[in-house]
Amino acid sequence: MMRIVIVGAGMAGSKLAEELAQGATAKLAITLIGEEPKVGYNRIMLSSLLAQEISDEDMPLVDLQTMRQTGVDIIAEDPVVSISSKHKQVTLSSGRVMDYDKLVFATGSKANLLPIEGANADNVMGFRTWQDVDRMSALPAEQKVAVVGGGLLGLEAAVGLVKRGHQVTVFHRSGHLLNRQLDAAAASLLQNRLETMGIEFCLSDSPTRFIHDTSGTVCQLLHGDGQRKPVDLVIMAAGIVPETQLAQQTGLAVKKAILVDAQMTTSDADVYAVGECCEFEQQTFGLVAPIWSQIKVLTQVLAGNAANFTVTPTPTKLKVSGINLFSVGTIQPDAQDACLVFEDVSANHYRKLVVNDGQLVGAILYGNVADGSWYFQLIQNKTKVTDMLDRLIFGEAYCQPEVA
Amino acid sequence: MAQAFQKTTCPYCGVGCGVNMVLPNTDKAPVPPVSGDEMHPANFGRLCVKGSSLSQTLIDHDRLLTPSIQGQSTSWDEALDTISDKVAQVVKDHGPDAFAFYLSGQILTEDYYVANKLAKGFIGTANVDTNSRLCMASAVVAYKRAFGSDTVPCCYEDLECCDLLIMVGSNAAWTHPVLYQRIAAAKQKRPQMKVVVIDPRQTATCDIADLHLAIKPGADAAIFSYLLCHSDRAGVVDQTFMADSTSGFDEALTCAHAATPSLSFTADFCGVSVEDLACLADWWVDTEKTVTFYSQGINQSSSGVDKCNAIINCHLATGRIGKEGAGPFSITGQPNAMGGREVGGLANQLAAHMDFATPGAQDLVKRFWQAPNMATENGLKAVDLFQAMEAGKVKVVWIMSTNPMVSLPDTAQVRRALEKCELVIVSDCKNNTDTTAMADILLPATGWSEKNGTVTNSERCISRQRGLLPAPGEARHDWWAICEVAKRLGFKPAFDYQGTHDIFAEHAALSAFENAGKRDFDIGHFQSVTQAEYDALVPVQWPVPKGQPAGTKRMFADGQFFTADRKARFIPISPVLPQHARNQEWPFVLNTGRVRDQWHTMTRTGNAASLARHTNQPYVEIHPRDVKALGLQDQGLARLVSPYGQAILRVKTSRATSPGQVFAPIHWTQAFANQSVVSNLIPQVVDPLSGQPESKHAVIRLEAIKKPLFAAILSTQALDLSAFLYWCRIPSEHGFYYEVALSSAAEVEQTVRDLKQQTGLSEHWMTYQNPLSGQSRMACLRENQLALLLYWHDQPQQLSVDWLVSKLAPDSPVLEQERLAILAGSLAHSEDKGEIICSCFQVGHKQIQKAVAEGVRSVAELGTRLKCGTNCGSCVPELKPFMPIPVEQSA
Question: Is a pLDDT exceeding 90 seen at residue A311?
Fold first, then answer.
């Protein structure tokens, strides 16, 4: 029986374990090893949990109980600390040693800690785990919270915290929020909405220093212009970096992340990597869709079947505080591109389409994203949109002939 | 339970159709759609689209409800006192000719009668003219020259039973749709019946034509001059009739030979092919039962009277008059132009078909009226009247039910005249017309369905227009207002009528007074009519002398005319072309006319949104070759410049008009569009005999308006669009719909700011920008109700705005899922009808194309499927081109 050890029980690791377990249990002995006390939960839902839109029962991504019944060994709160590829063994924090035939890295990523003076303090934290949410949920009332980073994670933390009654300020180095997904106009709609919820924004700004009190707790921060601002808690949400420390120790080939081929195989033929920790064709992955497809490929590979992972462009679909966002392709047009723009501020509805040489090359949808997948198809298929330019922005229903 | 309907008569064209109207149950309820009166001899149940839409025009919008003096509301008493004081003063200081009436073919015979009586018998001036001057004055003079009386010899039945119908200067398919439909039906029944259309343009009427002669503008008389010569050569002159019943043939023939010596000369003069002219000539000589049907294209000419007489000459020579299916048939444009003629309501008539020059007439009328101040000579005809006004000679004018600021030539002159005139009184049902804007005193008049009296149609048929609805506000009947002024001037006994039956009876009595067959117009049968009899009056063709209640279908059956020797007169005619010829500076000839679904200056039809669908903006029809040469763009804007003024109109590329000629409809006024008054361009050239203006002819130049920015604007409130280069308000079911243009895109920002300020909208705007399609759209919702919407486009285009207009209705909130559609223009998957072709059933060109694509092969099938063309039928000529060309069966 083939022994498969999965390092990391986040979304990718748990999902892989479940897929393998549902596939061919007879031949596989699966071990899923996690660092966190809770494993197999849906990390994407943490912001909803923080915002109290859902409760703990809504969190599981996989059915741990069924997995255990089918023989999967699930180990929580006991991370792998070292790997011997020579002996095909992993050693856990507890000292336990396990043999493997095939090893899968699913170590995910960690918060990108900006090198800001004074950031090393107890009340400077990331927003990554259930534990982080538990900690934020336990805060005393009306805390002054600084969120560093106006990307998706930062905004989700900010929304969750402001809903819990805290005073939240978001620092963002770019001139507009979600600058990798949105243009300035859509971002400004989003910002207006979040401001009405009570979130304060400092754009084109980043704390330059955290000032500690006598107990070593951050009590103030310095704005870029030197102004001081009192804080009770700092959330670092300035992006994520792939977790590759263990892989590097093991001697796997790592660039931005663990290098894999189309079968998700690392530089070691018996070691694979999936999820946020892997790098394929110079790309790393943060969205769910390609990671699920990696898992499908790896499941086949481990079953001895041929399968190839390919990168397909993926639209970004987000939801911030009930507002749906969709972004795909070129969103910052150059001189050759033309932009079609629809804006309905009162209804929180914005659309921008970027057209180049008769083809749709990019789209941003804010508020109403129902047409996102259709636009995505148009981009994917390089469909000529010349004949529907005057209706394109109004969506598929206006451009497709009615089916009689 | 079906409600009983009331019978009345349509207020539009001279066909004079009977209309059935069901009254609403309550005051506020809308009047249900009307239907055609199957018993009425004019229409036998048919109605055209304008008539069918009459109930839609019965709305409160812009209704004039109170008298006003210099813009200040006042009482009727105050207004009437002011008028009579002023009239008394100017008559005292400057003589009776300082006063004038300018009346209308829309007022009723009874209104006309009292106005004519007051002016000609009591004030003492013959300055009683009317917009009928613009319509058929030439036909009147020609009949009088030929017959000694203004007598229309024919009846509508003649149009159906003739074997050759020559339609000249008439687009009856659009202007007299019910007659056209009767003709079309007759031709369908008897395909051997031939129809010839003589018109510079390929009009909808050509649809049933066996032959179309696209003559040079104004060359009509030469055709008939040639036909006279040809009749003589072919030996079809009716020698007996000519000897017994006519005089002057030889002089007329000599003149005709000189004018049109040969076929080729005539064809060349008229700009038609020798073959076509020869064909007409052959048909003419071969066809005993021939009717010549003519209208404004003949009458509105500097030689209009001669043209009419050229036609009449041909009918006299061949004896084709007074017989079934034969005669020279002038068709009037207005519902009661004929009634006006009957009472003498023209400056060159006295009363009851008597002229000032008629021996004994002045005395007869004076005795009948017991008139203290008889006018003794002709008054001023329309154009002369307004020129006299500008010269300061006419100091008080009372304009009734007409819009001379739009209809008379040279609008700038008309404006100067009205500005100069000391007191301009305007009676109208509308508050805002181009003419009410010039008034010192405004009098609110009753309108159609409120007014009560009689009208006479083109076949001498007198019908009742009945007062079925209450007068709104302070609106009063025109006859009442005239009589009230007459009483204040001290003429109470002569103007103390109990009602219109009383006036009609007196009118009838005058027609019979010392008549004894001397005068054609005699309706003595009605001289003692009671109120009940008057109310029950059924349509009847005059003359209706005492003892002959059935009336008279056809005139001159006995070959007896109303000249002194009872013989009809031939008139020698030398055909001439219009007075102004095009030249290098003014290289285009402008022809004017009507569109299918509008009437006159749109004061009534402009109320009906459905009637705006067929042609929603003023346009100029230009041949594609000229469009290209001038750098114009179809649907773009062109500036028309004449020595008298300018207009800006949409370009409509069409092969219906020949190169070098353009055509523009006359309907749009400043109340509907800022730059579209076509009479601005027309010179005050008139026929020397009839005084009828040459309104269908001007020489102009055309200029392309380069790169304007177009927009459609919808608003819940009326907007001041004076900053726009061009705007046109298109009647809509709800709110206000404008099509506009700015000189350039650079003006957009300021314009939007102005509109925001005007409307006081501070809400967020929805916007849509698409540089690739040249689209820029914006809309503002107030409390989820569409308040203002602007669709800009850099190319001319017409979007269907039906759904958007529906969102201007009160209590029609824009639902959350509809917001996107506000800038898309419609709901997704909604059917775009395209341009409306059938107004009766609101069927658009895209629906028709679809049906044809799905296998529909005939207009009849199309009618079964979409209903288009099955009510009034006036869209049938436009439906035919949609049909696929049938594949010829190979032999």
Answer: no
Tell me what pLDDT residue B890 has. Answer: 42
Q: In whole angstroms, give the CA distance from residue B868 to residue B851.
A: 11
Query: Is the ipTM beyond the 0.90 threshold?
Result: no
Residue with tokens 């600021």: B405
Rounded distance between C-alpha atoms, residue B614 and residue B611, angstroms: 7
> Is residue B767 within 8 angstroms of chain A, CB to CB?
yes
Question: What's the CA gap between B686 and B487, in Å, rounded?
Answer: 36
Q: What is the pLDDT of residues B352-379, one digit of tens each?
A: 999 999 999 999 999 999 999 999 999 9
Residues in chain A: 404
How many CB pairs below 8 Å do chains A and B form together? 61
Antiparallel, parallel or unpaired: β B99-103 and B396-400: parallel
d(CA A232, CA B788): 49
β-bridge mates for residue A218, sequence order: A212
Contact B820 A389 (CB under 8 A): no
CB contact under 8 A, A398 and B824: yes
Give how far Cα B62 sits from Cα of B66, B430, B434, B464, B756, Å. Answer: 12, 6, 13, 27, 24
Q: Report the C-alpha gap between A311 and A329 in whole angstroms.
A: 14
Q: Which amino acid, residue B596?
A: R
Contact assignment for B823 to A394 by CB distance below 8 Å: yes
Binning pLDDT at 50, 70 and 90, where does residue A404 land? very low
Query: Residue B651: CA atoms inside 13 Å, Cβ hemisphere, count?
Result: 26
Residues of A in CB contact (< 8 Å) with B are 338-347, 349, 355, 368, 389-391, 393-395, 397-398, 402
Q: Do B820 and A342 touch (CB under 8 A)?
A: yes
Distance from CA of B283 to the nearest CA of A (A): 53
What contacts B108, CB < 8 A, 6 or more positions away? B336, B339, B451, B452, B453, B454, B455, B465, B478, B479, B500
Report helix angle B137-147 to B304-317, nearest 10: 40
With tokens 């992955």, the residue in question is: A285
Name the token pair of B212.
């179309």
Give the bridge partners for A351, in sequence order: A342, A365
Pick the closest to residue A4 from A22, A28, A25, A23 (CA basis).
A28
Contact B828 A394 (CB under 8 A): yes
Report the distance separating Cα B8 and Cα B157, nearest Å.
21
Tokens of B338: 């004929």
User: pLDDT tens across B87-125, in order?
Assistant: 999 999 999 999 999 999 999 999 999 999 999 999 999
For B470-530, give the DSSP string. Answer: PPPTT-B-HHHHHHHHHHHTT-GGGG--SSHHHHHHHHHHHHHTT-TTSSS---GGGTT--
**Phi and psi at residue B588, in whole multiples of 5°?**
-120, 145
Angle formed by the axes of helices B500-512 and B109-117, nearest 10°: 70
Mutation for testing the A interface, residue in B764, B769, B778 having most A CBs under 10 Å: B769
Q: Mean pLDDT for chain A?
A: 92
pTM assigned to the model: 0.87
Distance, in Å, from the CA atom of B789 to the CA atom of B800, rounded to the nearest integer, reads 14
Strand partners, B229: none
Chain A CB contacts of B823 below 8 Å? 342, 344, 394
